[in-house]
Specification:
Largest sheet: 9 strands, antiparallel
Strand content: 25-35%
Distance between the termini: 151 Å
Radius of gyration: 57 Å
Order of helices and strands: HEEEEEEEEE
Shape: globular
Structural class: mainly beta
């Protein structure tokens, strides 16, 4: 029988224990040992203003300059109707010699001179200066006529006698197209056989 010395047994036991200790400390999750932590690598943050990835260039959209937009009229819209009572036309300082007249219904587009001409029926005259100084018109004398409503009354006649025609005379006149006008005589020149008038015609 082989006898092993006591010292050798002790040394062998120590070697076995150390080996077991070393083997258990380097395990990866086995019983009796702690799992080894997995190392992580921190990614440094990019400095401000630095692109962190590929970027796409914006696509520029070219817009052709077409000038200011032109307002469009509503489809099917009709021309505006003149406001009743509104001034249709007005002019101061018209001079009428005898045997000449004007058309109070004429617009500027119709005739800049109110169709001024000789002859009581020429060009639709509805205000006429007769050869004897009488005014031929469907008119009546009024103290004042600030608007159309002041003329919308009865009492119209056909002529204003020459004796009534003087500076300051105010007349309401009905036109051939059923409008109303105010005619104010501002001057009578007997030598030149003329009179000067201011005219306002309402719709």
């Amino acid at each position: 029988m082989l006898l092993v010395p006591a010292a050798a047994v002790v040394v062998g036991a120590l070697i076995t224990g150390v080996f077991a200790l070393l083997s258990g400390g380097h395990g990866s999750g086995s019983e009796g040992g702690s799992p080894r932590p997995t190392p992580t690598v921190a990614t440094p943050a990019a400095p401000p203003g630095t692109a962190t990835g590929p970027t796409r260039s914006p696509t520029a959209t070219a817009t052709a300059a077409t000038g200011p937009a032109t307002p469009e009229s509503p489809a099917g819209s009709a021309a505006a109707t003149p406001e009743r009572g509104g001034v249709r036309r007005a002019q101061d300082g018209l001079v009428l010699v005898r045997n000449y007249g004007i058309d109070l219904d004429a617009t500027v587009e119709d005739s800049v001179t109110w169709r001024y001409g000789e002859g009581v029926t020429a060009d639709g005259h509805d205000f006429y200066h007769w050869h004897n100084g009488t005014i031929g018109a469907d008119a009546r004398v009024v103290a004042a006529a600030p608007d159309r409503a002041a003329c919308e009354t009865t009492g119209y006649g056909e002529d204003i006698s020459a004796k009534q025609v003087s500076s300051g005379l105010v007349l309401c006149v009905k036109t051939r197209e059923d409008r109303y006008a105010r005619v104010t005589v501002t001057k009578v020149d007997l030598e030149k056989k003329s009179m000067t008038i201011d005219v306002v015609v309402w719709n």
